[in-house]
UniProtKB/TrEMBL annotation:
The chain crosses the membrane at residues 35-59, 71-99, 142-168, 174-191, 261-282, 288-309. Pfam families: ABC_membrane, ABC_tran. Residues 351-585 form the ABC transporter domain. Keywords: ATP-binding, Membrane, Nucleotide-binding, Transmembrane, Transmembrane helix. GO terms for molecular function: ATP binding. The keyword Transferase does not apply. It comes from Brooklawnia cerclae. This is ATP-binding cassette subfamily B protein. It is a multi-pass membrane protein.
Length: 597
């Protein structure tokens, strides 16, 4: 059997065992409206049948020698049923669709809230494809059930049952003859349809999952695709996934096509009219029914099999919805970072690492025995070779991951005991790559303090030395970042995120290589903004350019996850150790670059 993992090693739909209760749990908040919608839809389906019955009865009575006033009663019944049907149908449709809108909103919000609790490691492992799948694809799969299942399934099951009941009251042998025809057609075609369906359903889901993952990968890696064109592995994986999906679709259609065509032809309304007439002639010949008695069968019996096809489609929808619900259920049951069992609020903003060990993967230590203090109003710089653990240290403070050993405290309180909103409100982070949303500049800055006034947002931008640049944009602060008119350089975007940190006014600042992508002019501006931002706060700086941290109160030199030197710039230079060598190497590199210019 083909491997059911996708090219990125993630699990595909076919690996998931559908959990029977998941769909019921997921739809619980709107269940009462779904039931009411189903009841209204059932009543509407019965009403939809009544006009046909009324016409059949009117025709039968008119052909009688003395129709009497009963004819008019049937006319009124038919008209009232038509009106009632429209009202009930419209009501059921609105009810289910409004329930569906609420359902989608509630479920997406629940999923996104839960995603916020998951450690960053989960996102690294699962990728954006998994998030997109849960929030859009899986929710959409279930939404079809809320919007349509209750109403459509009830009517698909109920209409044939009521029709058969009515026809039995008209003539039992003729009804049995018609049912026998329908059963024989099913018996001929349904088993091979079922076999074809089961054989390719899983294959189809797997191929679809692979296309979804490959598409996300393609978009994420669009720069590689542009550079290496269609020869890149990313593009090849996408191409293979699409070809596989097409192939499965072809095989599936071929397997299902013949039996589906047989059923469609034999249940086609024109075919059914001919069948009812033929069976009617037979029954009249055998003396089981008179000619007038065949009329109800022509009007009501012809559409008897249509419900089957609808039920088959809905069963498919049910299965994919159950699969979507199982995915979401699994995601919602993933454990988030544990909540504090004894919540406490820190007294001040002194950050302390106390013999901290950390590993992303069990058995592969990344940090070992890290201890240092980040006192309020001081700057601590982390330096060291690539991969030595600088970013990891910074990310443990806001609990992007939890330590494996030792403890991190803020104001004497273990970060694991500080309620998450409280913890995050105390820490402002300026990442290496400026993280901005596709939203207006104003809202991007306001993320630092939701509810901040426009004046405060502008003041923060002045402090970050980006106000004038924003004011010069076509729509000023209302320009959407990422849009054609809202294109800012890396250094400018970095200053937008610094403005966000100014607005947040947090006592602890984490700066991860904030000047990394800036040109020399931007770098000076960013540096000035950062110096002002850091004044009076606990600042942790990750720096590659040692010239930016010569005035730091404390420099920690990391190597392979351990602190190998610590002290002021001058002390470390005097010690003539690793830091001194790094300084000399950067100095001569800068001199070489200067000479080359
Ligand atoms: N999400 C992750 N999952 C597993 N390993 C990781 C993860 N992030 C980083 N690592 C590993 O942890 C080690 C430390 O990485 P870290 O990013 O903290 O180093 P760094 O000193 O900041 O590097 P750089 O200067 O290149 O940014 C590296 O070996 C890295 O491969």
């Amino acid at each position: 059997m083909a491997d059911s993992r996708t090219s990125t090693g993630r699990r595909s739909d076919a690996d998931v065992l559908v959990s029977p209760g998941a769909l019921a749990r997921m739809t619980a908040p709107v269940r009462s409206r779904m039931i009411l919608g189903a009841a209204m839809s059932a009543a509407s389906s019965v009403c939809a049948l009544v006009p046909f019955v009324a016409v059949a009865e009117v025709v039968r009575l008119l052909l009688d020698s003395d129709p009497g006033t009963t004819v008019w009663i049937w006319v009124v019944v038919g008209v009232v049923a038509m009106v009632a049907r429209s009202l009930l149908y419209g009501g059921a449709l609105s009810l289910c669709h409004f329930a569906d809108v609420d359902f989608v909103h509630l479920l997406r919000r629940r999923v996104v809230r839960h995603l916020r609790l998951l450690p960053l490691g989960w996102f690294d492992e699962s990728g954006s494809g998994e998030v997109k799948k849960a929030v859009t694809d899986d929710v959409t799969r279930i939404h079809v059930i809320v919007a349509h299942l209750a109403g459509d399934l009830t009517s698909a099951v109920l209409v044939p049952l009521v029709s058969i009941g009515y026809l039995l009251t008209r003539n039992v042998p003729m009804t049995l003859l018609l049912l026998a025809y329908i059963v024989v057609v099913f018996a001929m075609a349904a088993p091979s349809m079922q076999r074809g369906y089961q054989a390719y359903m899983d294959e189809w889901n797997r191929a679809q999952g692979a296309v979804s993952t490959a598409t996300v990968e393609l978009v994420d890696g669009v720069e590689v695709v542009k550079t290496y064109g269609t020869s890149s592995a990313v593009f090849r994986r996408f191409d293979d996934a699409v070809s596989r999906l097409t192939h499965v679709a072809y095989l599936w259609t071929a397997a299902m096509g013949r039996p589906a065509a047989v059923i469609n032809i034999l249940f086609f309304p024109a075919t059914m009219i001919a069948v009812v007439l033929g069976l009617g002639l037979l029954a009249v010949g055998l003396g089981w029914i008179d000619a007038v008695g065949v009329i109800p069968f022509l009007l009501v019996g012809v559409s008897l099999p249509s419900g089957y096809l609808q039920v088959a489609q809905l069963a498919n929808g049910m299965r994919t919805a159950a699969l979507g619900a199982t995915h979401i259920d699994r995601l919602l049951s993933l454990p988030g970072l544990p909540d504090p069992d004894d919540p406490a609020v820190p007294a001040d903003s002194a950050v302390r690492f106390d013999h901290v060990d950390f590993a992303y993967t069990d058995g592969v230590p990344v940090l070992t025995n890290i201890s240092f203090e980040l006192a309020p109003g001081t700057v601590t710089a982390l330096v060291g070779p690539s991969g030595s653990g600088k970013t990891t240290i910074a990310r443990l403070i806001p609990r992007f991951w939890d330590v494996s050993g030792g403890m991190i405290t803020i104001g004497g309180v273990d970060v694991r005991q500080i309620p998450t909103p409280e913890l995050l409100s105390r820490i402002a982070i300026v990442f290496q790559d400026a993280v901005v949303l596709t939203d207006t500049v104003r809202e991007n800055v306001r993320l630092g303090r939701p509810g901040a006034s426009d004046a405060d947002v502008e003041q923060a931008c002045r402090d970050a030395q980006i106000h004038q640049r924003i004011a010069d944009l076509p729509n000023g602060y209302d320009t959407v970042l990422g849009s054609a008119e809202g294109h800012l350089s890396g250094g400018e975007l970095q200053r937008v995120t610094i403005a966000r940190a100014f607005l947040q006014d947090a006592p602890i600042i984490l700066l991860d290589e904030a000047t990394a992508h800036a040109d020399p002019h931007s770098e000076v501006q960013i540096q000035q903004a950062l110096n002002r931002l850091g004044a009076g706060r606990s600042v942790l700086v990750i720096a590659h350019r040692l010239s930016t941290i010569v005035h730091a109160d404390q420099i920690l030199v990391l190597d392979d996850g351990q602190i190998i030197e610590r002290g002021h710039h001058d002390d470390l230079i005097a010690a003539d150790g690793r830091y001194a060598r790094m300084w000399a190497a950067q100095d001569s590199a800068a001199a070489r670059a200067g000479a080359a210019r």
